[in-house]
Structures are given as C-alpha cells and as structure tokens.
Design a protein that fits this description.
With about 425 residues, this protein is of the alpha+beta class. It folds into 2 domains: about 240 residues, BirA Bifunctional Protein, domain 2 (2-Layer Sandwich); about 90 residues, Anticodon-binding domain (Rossmann fold), CATH 3.40.50. An 8-stranded mixed β-sheet has the order 1-5-6-11-10-9-7-8. The longest helix is centred in the middle third of the chain and has 18 residues. The radius of gyration is 28 Å and the shape is elongated. The two termini are about 50 Å apart. The model has no long low-confidence stretch (mean pLDDT about 95). The protein binds histidyl-adenosine monophosphate (HAM). The site of histidyl-adenosine monophosphate has 27 residues, from β6, β10, β11 and α11.
C-alpha cells in the first residue's frame, strides 16, 4: 500500500457539504458591507516578513512564535499573512490611496498562524475584515460597530456581547505601561509564569491573562482607562454616546488589550460564551500610528476582522445554517436519442428556471439504477426520457417526494408542469 498524504495539522478542507453555509455567510457579509459603501481589496497572501514584524509588533505571540516564515529562493524572508490589516496599510502607502482621502475597504480570505490547534483555533483560518482610513472622530468607530451589529441581525445571530476599551495615545499608554510594570514587579511572585515573562517584554498583555491568581492581583492594578489622555477620553466618551444613541449595548472591559501592538484608543471585541475558550468572533480597533510607522504620512485608521469558522460554529450552535444546496430536478434517460434529448431539455429548464438546479444523470446505468440516484440526490422531481417519449415529443414527470405521482406531458408543456411541482416564490424565483 502506498502511504496516503494527509492535510497539514490545523489546516482544514472545507468540504462540499459545507459549501451552502459558507456561500450564504459570504454573500450576507458582502451585502452588508456594500450597503455601507465599502470596496473590496484583494491582496497577496505572502508579504515580506518585516511588514508583520514592524506592524503587529516584535514582542507579540504572533510575531514571536506563530508566523509561517520561510526564505524565498533568492533568500528573502517571506511570511504567510497572519492577518489582513498590515497588508492593507502596505498597499495603501504603496499605491497612494490613503493620504488625504476617506477610505473604506474590506477583504476576506485565508490567514495563517502556527497556533496550537483546537476548536475555533486553526493554523489556516478565514477572516473577513474592514479597514478605514482618514477619519479621526469616533463616528467611524461607531459605524464599524454598527456594521457588525447589522450583520449579526442579517444572519439572525444572538448572544454576542460587545466589549469596549480605550488604550489611549502612545504617550499615555507608555506612562501607564511604566506604572503597571512597577505595580506588577512589586507583585511578581503572585503572577503565573507567562505573565512574569510578559511583565518585562509587554506588560499590557498581562492584563488579559486567564490565570486566576494573576487576575486576583490585577484587581488592584492601576486602571488603563484612568490613565487616558484628555483627547482619547473624549474620543471614547464620544463613541460610547454614539453607540448608546444607536441602541447598541456594550460593556466596558478595562482589561481588553488585544494581541497586536498597533492599536491606539478604541479597541473592541464581539464575544460569545457559546464557543468555549475561543469566544471572540470579531475584533478590532483604531490604529492611528500604524500608517506612519510603516512609512506613510500620519493617517487615522480603524478596522476590524472576524473569524469565519467561529461565526459558522456559532451559527450552527444556534441552528441558523441553511441546508446544503441540492438540485431540485433530476433528468433520467434511456437510449442514445433520449440521452441527447435529456441534455437539451435540461438546458431549456436551466434557461427558464436557473434557480431550480438541474442535474442530468451521466452514466451507463438502466432506468432503475438511475431512479435510485435521483432519489438519493434529494431532488424533488425526476424528468424521464425513454424511447417512447422521444418519438412522441413527450417527457415523463415524476414527483420524488410525498405522494409519488407520475405524468407524461408534451415537452412543450414541461415548464408549466414543473411550476406545479416547484412553484416560484414571491420574487419570481
Ligand atoms: P485578531 O484578534 O488577531 O485581529 O483576529 C480577528 C479574529 O480572527 C478573531 O477574533 C477570531 O475570530 C479570528 N481568529 C484569529 N485567529 C484565529 C485562529 N487561529 N483560528 C480561527 N480564527 C481566528 C486581527 O487579525 C486584526 N487584523 C483585526 C483588525 C483589523 N484590527 C483592525 N483592523
């Protein structure tokens, strides 16, 4: 026996039976973001490693240990994108579409992180994200959040909680960082090992530790929100006001700090308790310093990304996924002339009723075997063409579900007969 090649751990095939759910989710996302006037951008999956190191941050989990980094054939260090924001900014600077403009773009596609695979956490996963540039006030932060809330409504999703925080500007954050660091140093012995390490490299990340002892210590830690600079405080209050007046509920989570370094001011996450440890479905915030950090002119920016697999898992848990799409009409034939006729008839039905889905049996089996396939296909109607039908210009229409009726009609009357079996909905489909 030859060894079989398996897929890579944490990288999954999305099989045909999941196709309807993915397509429906993707189409709903597209409808919602386009209704806000966002334009789609498609970017390379591979970028120079330095792009991620300089944007996400050298001392983050992603850059330190999760990137798929390799040397290109000419020795250049490249990385499979772990997220989409850095690429958008790189592209915006390169093509000059950021400076002095108001930009709203979105993207979707696979991202790669070498994390420990578990439910809701994969090494190849899909994100849909939106990024905006050139808008300073809290209105755009609110718009992004309203857009996600509209998406949840369009999908019928419930049970998501919006958590908000503000990280302030760079100076306020640096001052807070020092204050937090000296507090944590004074309680070092009570911290978990990971937090002790982070305390020196990236103390803010200690704030989102899940360790119970560390969390206990953090209850007494200085609060980030109290250390905010005046303009960040105003921005945050402005955002809270806009959300309240739009009827969006939120909770302020002073420990929300995010795992990427480029954020300033607003950060937010949509969280569910229904998915276990990987409960963040969508996350984002402001990154006003990133464009200049990557060599562009100073440009305010704000965005988010959502995990498609996590969204689908939540939709499934709430029983909201559409059934797999199956053709509603199945065409059977016997004999060479009938086989030819079957193709013509199937084409004519597709032309008139493209929404039905028509599948033609292609193979050598007799009518009985074909009927079994038709039954198993999930189709509602079988169209049968035998020698007699061909000679007489007829077609047999058989109902496959419910009461098994069978009717021979003229081929010219087929569409009318099909209407009886598969009526159009109110939109004429
Ligand atoms: P992130 O929090 O790293 O942010 O990822 C956003 C979302 O992607 C997460 O909330 C989660 O739903 C999903 N996700 C992340 N890692 C995985 C994984 N290993 N497996 C499955 N799903 C995952 C960002 O990526 C930022 N670029 C978001 C952003 C855009 N901020 C501003 N603009």
């Amino acid at each position: 026996m030859v060894d079989r090649i398996q897929s890579i751990r944490g990288m999954h095939d999305i099989l045909p039976e999941a196709g309807a759910a993915w397509s429906w989710l993707e189409a709903t996302i597209r409808e919602v973001v386009e209704s806000y006037g966002y334009q789609k951008i498609r970017l390379p999956i591979v970028e120079k490693t330095e792009l991620f190191a300089r944007s996400i941050g050298e001392v983050t989990d992603i850059v330190e240990k999760e990137m798929y980094t390799f040397a290109d054939r000419n020795g250049e260090s490249l990385t499979l994108r772990p997220e989409g924001t850095a690429g958008c900014v790189r592209s915006g600077i390169e093509h000059g579409f950021l400076h002095n403009q108001l930009v709203r773009i979105w993207y979707s596609g696979p991202m790669f992180r070498h994390e420990r695979p578990q439910k809701g956490r994969y090494r190849q996963f899909y994100q849909m994200g939106a990024e905006t540039f050139g808008m300073e006030g809290p209105a755009i932060d609110a718009e992004l959040i309203l857009m996600t809330a509209r998406l949840w409504r369009a999908l019928g999703l419930g049970g998501l909680r919006l958590e908000l925080n503000s990280l302030g500007n760079a100076e306020a954050r640096a001052a807070y960082r020092d204050e937090l660091q000296s507090f944590l140093r004074s309680r070092r012995d009570e911290l978990d090992e990971d937090s002790r390490r982070r305390l020196e490299s990236n103390p803010l990340r200690v704030l989102d530790s899940k360790d119970p002892d560390t969390r206990e210590v953090l209850r007494e830690a200085p609060q980030l929100l109290e250390a905010l600079d005046e303009s960040s405080r105003e921005h945050f209050e402005g955002l809270c006001e806009l959300l309240s007046s739009a009827g969006i509920e939120y909770v302020i989570n002073p420990r929300l700090v995010r795992g990427l370094d480029y954020y300033s001011r607003t950060v937010f996450e949509w969280v569910t308790d229904a998915l276990g440890a990987q409960g963040t479905v969508c996350a984002g915030g402001r990154y006003d310093a990133l464009v200049s950090q990557l060599g562009g002119r100073e440009t305010p920016a704000c965005g988010f990304a959502m995990g498609i697999e996590r969204l689908l898992a939540l939709l499934e848990a709430q029983d909201l996924l559409p059934a797999p799409a199956v053709p509603r009409v199945y065409v059977l034939s016997q004999g060479a002339a009938a086989r030819r006729e079957a193709l013509h008839i199937a084409e004519a039905v597709r032309e008139a009723r493209p929404e039905l889905g028509v599948q033609v049996y292609c193979g050598e089996g007799g009518l009985k075997a074909q009927m079994k396939r038709a039954d198993r296909s999930g189709a509602e109607v079988a169209l049968i063409l035998g020698e007699q039908e061909v000679v007489e210009g007829m077609v047999t229409v058989r109902a496959l579900r419910g009461e098994a009726t069978q009717n021979m009609v003229a081929q010219t009357a087929l569409l009318a007969e099909l209407l009886r079996h598969c009526p159009m909905d109110q939109e004429g489909r």
